[in-house]
Amino acid sequence: MPVSLRTDRFRSLLAIFIALSLGGAGLGGTGLDVLAQQADPTPSKRPAQQKPPAKPRQPGAAAAKPPSAKAEAAKTEALPPSQIGIGTLARQAYMVDPLTSTVLLFKEADKPMHPSSMAKMMTIYIVFEELASGRLKLDTKFRVSERARNMGGSRMFVELGSEVSVEDLLKGMIVLSGNDACVVIAEGLAGNEDSFAERMTRKGRELGMSATTFKNASGWPAEGQWTTARDLAVLAWHTIEDFPQYYHYYSESNWTYNNIKQENRNRLLKITPGTDGLKTGHTEEGGFGQATSVVRDGRRLILIVNGLTTMAERAHETARLMEWGFRETTNTTVFRAGDVVAEAPVWLGTQDKVPLVVSKPIAVTTPTGQPASPRVTAKFDGPLPAPIAKGTQLGTAALTMPDGRVVEYPLEAGTDVPRRGVLGRVAGMIQHYLFGWWS
Predict the structure, then answer these.
(1) How far from the centroid of its chain's Cα atoms is residue 31's Cα?
(2) Taken in order 361, 362, 364, 365, is the CA torsion positive or negative?
C-alpha cells in the first residue's frame, strides 16, 4: 500500500537508485534455522565421524525484536554505502524484483566471492531437474560411501553403507545443509564429485551464471571455486520459476533424521513474514552469507548477501534489507495475464484481426508513492497469415520507461484463427489486389 517516503533526502536518494537500477542489468536475461543447531561451520578439513550435535537452545525474545524506526534510520545513515540502494554491512549484496528485473540493491554484486553452502542450490537444482524429467524419483535410493560419511561441517549424519532416498537427501541438503548428503547425491548421479561439479558449472552457464565455477557439490572451500551475488540470484530465481512443484522443500524450518532434530539455519523463515527460502552459507574467508526469497501480496523479492560477521548479523541484516525493499518500492501492474494489448490484421483468415495478449503479468517497479507511466508499443509484422494457433508468439510489447529504458515482453495470439476455405481465399486475394490500396 503506497506510503510517503520519510524524508525528502531519502526520497531523492531512492529516486536516484531506482533510476540507476532501471538503467542497469537485471536477472541476467530472466525477465532466480531459525535457530541453528550448530553455527554454520567454518570448513577447514574433513574430520572423522563426529558426534551428533547437542540439543539446540531456543532463541531469546530479544533476538527477534526489531529495532525502533529512529534507531534503524540512524544506523542506516552510518552503514557502508552501496552502488545502488541503501548502505549495508554485507560485503556483497544484490536485491532484485524478478517480475520486473529491477535491481533495488547492488553492492559489489559482480565481485567474485566464495559460494559456501549457497553452492548447494545448484546441486539441489540438478536433483529437481532429474526429478522433473523422470530420471529420478523421490524414493530412489543412493548408497553412502566412506567419503560421504566422513564429510565435515554441517551434516545430516548418514550412516556408512546405508541407502538413503532422494527425498531424504533433498531435505538433508536444504534443511540441514548436509555436506554428506551432497556427496551422496554427487556420487549417485555422476560417479564422483569432480564430474558432478563439472556438470554444475555447465548448468550454471546455461542459466546465465557466467562468473560461477563449482569445484564440489557442497560449497566446501576449494581453489578456483567462485561465484557472484548476481549469479546466485539468477540461480535462486530459476529454482523458483523452473520447479514450483519441488520448491516447497526450501520452506521447511526443521527436520529429524537418524533421530537427530536440526533447525534450518535460515532464521528468516520464522522472523520475516513471507519468507519461503532459500539457503545460508559460511566460510572463514567469505563470511556469513544467505540467499533469501520473500513473497508478500503476490510480489517476490530475491536478496543475496555475503561477507557478514556472525549468524545473528546475517539474520538481522537480511531481514532489515528485505523490509526496506518492500517498504520503499512498489510494483504497478500494467497488464494482467491474458489482457489484450493490441489487435493485428490477419491475411486470409476466418476473421480479419487477431487479439495480441500477454501470457504473464507485466509490471513496473517504482519508489513507493511515485506513479508508473510507461509508454506501450505493440510490435509485429502484419498482416499475419492464417492459420494462427492460440498461444503462438506473434510480436512484442515494448514498454518505454520514464528514464528511456525499453523492456520488451512477448505478445501471443489470444485466439485461434483458422484459414479460409478455397473460395474464401480466392475472394480475399481478389479483394486485396483490387481494393487493398483503399485501406
Answers:
(1) 11
(2) positive
Half-sphere exposure of 264 (CA within 13 A, CB side): 26
The predicted model scores a pTM of 0.78
| 248 phi/psi in degrees, rounded to 5 | -60, -20
The residue behind cell 510507461 is: 374
pLDDT in tens, 142-155: 999 999 999 999 99
Place of cell 539457503: 279
Q: Determine the Cα–Cα distance for residues 84 and 95; give it in Å rounded to an integer.
A: 10
Residue 434 has what pLDDT?
55
H or E element in which residue 400 lies = strand 393-400
How many other C-beta atoms are found inside a 10 Å radius of the C-beta of residue 27?
A: 25
| Per-residue model confidence as pLDDT tens digits over 60-78 | 334 444 445 455 555 556 7
Compute the distance between CA of residue 266 and CA of residue 33 in angstroms, rounded to an integer.
Answer: 4
Place of cell 512498489: 330
DSSP state, residue 25 = -
Do β-strands 406-413 and 393-400 pair in parallel, antiparallel, or remain unpaired?
Answer: antiparallel
Of 367, 319, 273, the C-alpha closest to 3 is: 367
- Structural domains in the chain? 12-45+77-331 (3.40.710.10), 336-438 (2.60.410.10)
What Å distances lie between residue 46 and 17, 132, 152, 215, 223, CA to CA? 44, 33, 5, 16, 16
